Structure formats: C-alpha cells, structure tokens
Amino acid sequence: MKVSIGSDHRGFKVKEEIKKCSGFEFIDRGTFSEESTDYPDYAKLVADDVLQNRVDFGILICYSGIGMSIAANKIKGIRAAYVIDEEFASLAKKHNNANILVLGAKVVEGKDLCKIVKVFSAEQFEGGRHQKRIDKICSLEKN
C-alpha cells in the first residue's frame, strides 16, 4: 500500500514514528524538521497525491489535527477525517469513505499510532445509506 504523508513542525515526530512502524510505502511530503512551517502547504501536497491517484490514501499531522483537517477539506474531492483512535479510524472509512487520515500529535500521543493507521487502511467503505450522504457532501462542493 502506498501512502502520502505530511506534517507541520508540531507533527514531525509523529510522522516519523508512523513511517517506521506501519510497513507501508510512503511519499513523504514534509516537513523534514521541527523548524516552524505552515500546515496548509502540506495539506495541499498530500491532497494532490490523493486526487491524482498516486497513493491509496493520505495522512496529515499537526499539533491538534484541526488545522490540517480544515485545510485539507477545503480541497474539492478530499474527505479528510480527524481521528483520535481506532474506532474513529474505522468509522471514517466505513461511513465517510475518508481518503485522508488526520491526526493531532497532542491527541494521539501515547496511543498506538500504527494500529490507528492500519485500521484506517484496512477498512472498506460500506456504501448503501452512506453513499447517499457522500453524494450530498460532494454536491456541497459544487456550490
């Protein structure tokens, strides 16, 4: 499985930890240090990889996860899900067909990051009643 991953300076350590433990092939879009950066830049790079089908999904990390989630969800075609644990990771994929997993470095600190990522990657969108809702979300992007 191929994954695009990006973080700002506050998510850098979590990004590096995920790359070591998950076993996936990564396109690392940065940042590459703890020097201050702007999270929207990385949200755009990862979203572009997802939309161009270069990867199976994306992962974004910032301190809270909120900024990355907001930035990524401004991009048409992206369904970035802010996830705090394995259950949310599962639901994000099964019910919302999320294509980017968003983590808050402060929030997931001490949790098993690789389990969260693996659950997200393994789940499948259920479709059915959820597809109708995804269609409505997509129609919001047209306005």
Automatic annotation (TrEMBL):
Entry keyword Isomerase: yes
GO molecular function: ribose-5-phosphate isomerase activity
This protein's record includes keyword Aminoacyl-tRNA synthetase: no
Gene3D superfamilies, A to Z: Sugar-phosphate isomerase, RpiB/LacA/LacB
Active site: C62 (proton acceptor), H95 (proton donor)
This protein's UniProt keywords: Isomerase
GO biological process: D-allose catabolic process; pentose-phosphate shunt, non-oxidative branch
Source organism superkingdom: Bacteria
Pfam families in alphabetical order: LacAB_rpiB (PF02502)
Cross-referenced InterPro entries: RpiB, RpiB_LacA_LacB, RpiB_LacA_LacB_sf
Family named by the database record: Belongs to the LacAB/RpiB family.
Protein name: Ribose-5-phosphate isomerase
Species of origin: candidate division TA06 bacterium 34_109
Source lineage: Bacteria, Bacteria division TA06
